[in-house]
Amino acid sequence: MGGTENAKGQVLRKKRGFGFVTNIKDYCTNCTLAGFAYIANSRLHFMERIFWLICVFMSSLGCYQLIMGYQRSFPTRAVSIVYESLPPFSKWKFPAVSVCELAYRGNLFPKFEEYITSLGVDVTGDYPYDVETGVSILLFPALYNENGLKGKCGTVHKNCTDACAKCPSDNYRQILTWYGANCSDLFVECKLSHEPFDCCRHFLPLLTPFGRCYMLNSLLNNEPGSKHWLPNELDPAHQKAVINVITRLDVQISVINAEDIPHTAFFPPGIPLITEGLSKYMQFNQVAMKNDPDVKDIDPKIRSCFFPEEIPADSLYKSYSFSVCITECIRRLQMKACNCTSFLYNPNADPRYPDCDLEGFLCLEKTRMIKPDSRVLVNNNKGNNASCGCLPSCNDGDITTIYEPLLFVRNPNKYYNGTLDMPFLPTDQYRRQSLRTPLDVVVSMGGMLGLFLGASILSAIEFVYYFTVRPLSNMLGARAARP
Q: How far apart are CA 460 and CA 216, in angstroms?
């Protein structure tokens, strides 16, 4: 009885194997791929069939090598950047502007000085300049020098009474908000193309690695079309691309790309206004970057850039740029080193990244993480623990200083006056264009498969048909034919 069942199983397996071989032969005989019909034709001499087998094998190998070569060259040949001329009399588009507080040489807002005085006196009973410097370092990073915080806030004077001032232990974000200069305290007058505009309506505050800055037309805290966005397209027939800003305190005024953030690691074109009653002037040139619509369809790692709207999931900012990426990388390194971050790297007080207190800042200084600008930039693409792997923004154009006079003009008042001028109409721009879109990939792959094997999209459907629908149809037909 058992032998009979084994024999039946062997017969069934033979039938299945024979059916599979029949399906393969049926496919090769009738498929549209070139050469396969000759291999399956039993009426031909076996030497002819071997000849066609070799031809199909060599064609398949050649097609594979060509496709692999195409894939290897794709990352280096998918995008091209060209330099092209602009139409004459095209409109000016003024870049974004940042105005950042400097507190140069202890020139602080009076309310802030009153706060420092309330903390106490120094060892000699005078104004606590060391405490002022220590707090200024935390609020205005441009003033920071290596180990400067420990020397001002990390040293305890043994001969000092309880009345001696000490650096506040925490709440630096609130200190800057409560005792720093607000917009109306800072700005006196703003003009674009010699036309005045409301400074505090269009310059919006933002905490940045450079300190507290006021941003004009920045994608980080504004958006085109909003009531705070200043129209920046200017007609060269009757408008000039020049901005003038007058302030009551010393500031750094710079022109930047709309998606960039002011950072101590970068030095965009600009002028420091650090002497009251003095006017400074600078001329700059801008070469914009435009992108073809097809560029967005290419993977960012292949095009080697991100668009401003391609924001990482854990980002704290509304737009992507290289400077923003470096900022967020430094925040992660600070968290890893001391389990806290400078409040200037967390503009919206996200609870995932707690603000450092004084001990946290001393920890950051000890690990050289308060201002690790050069180390982070040098290691950006090296793949080590300090590597950020940041890519530039796809909209990142070139803004360069072309003239800054050495002689300055004295004002009759005590204000700080800065003028940034783009004197020449832009005549050229960069354009990033796509050389290989997804459609190009489909066409190229299909062309290679068609050239070597005569394949098409119907060939793939045909393959599925012969090994699914066709055997099922044959099986149902055989059952129906049984008596």
A: 56
Structure tokens at 15: 């039938």
Helix (H), strand (E), coil (C) string for 17-85: HHHHHHHHHHHHHHCCCCCHHHHHCCCCCHHHHHHHHHHHHHHHHHHHHHHHHHHHHHHHHCEEEEEEE
> What span, in angstroms and rounded, lies between the C-alpha atoms of 300 and 390?
11
pLDDT in tens, 101-143: 887 666 677 788 888 888 888 877 788 888 888 888 888 888 8
- Give the span between the Cα atoms of 366 and 379, in whole angstroms: 20
Query: Given its phi and psi angles, is residue 106 left (phi above 0), alpha (psi -120 to 50 degrees) or beta?
Result: left
CA distances from 204 to 182, 212, 228, 252, 414 (A): 11, 10, 8, 15, 24
Report helix, strand or coil for 460. Answer: helix
Q: What is the DSSP string of 193-220?
A: TTEE--HHHHEEEEEETTEEEEEES-TT
pLDDT at position 161 is 62
Nearest to 108 by CA among 229, 248, 318, 261: 248
**Predicted confidence (pLDDT) per residue in 361-380, tens digit:** 999 999 988 888 777 887 77
Q: What is the mean pLDDT of residues 336-360?
A: 93
Mean pLDDT along residues 160-177: 83
Question: Measured between alpha carbons, how far apart are the two ends of the chain, in Å?
Answer: 28
Residue 153's nearest CA partner among 125, 130, 124, 128 is 130
Separation between Cα atoms, residue 441 and residue 71, nearest integer Å? 9
The pair of three-digit structure tokens given for residue 83, joined into one six-digit string: 């330099």
User: What's the residue count for the chain?
Assistant: 483
- Tens digit of each residue's pLDDT (9 = 90 or more) over 7-16: 545 544 545 5
The closest alpha carbon to 459, from 36, 72, 4, 16, belongs to 36
Sheet holding 428-434, edge to edge: 79-85, 428-434, 289-291
Q: Are 263 and 321 in contact (CB under 8 A)?
A: no
Look at 243 and 297; give whichever has higher pLDDT. Answer: 243
pTM here is 0.79
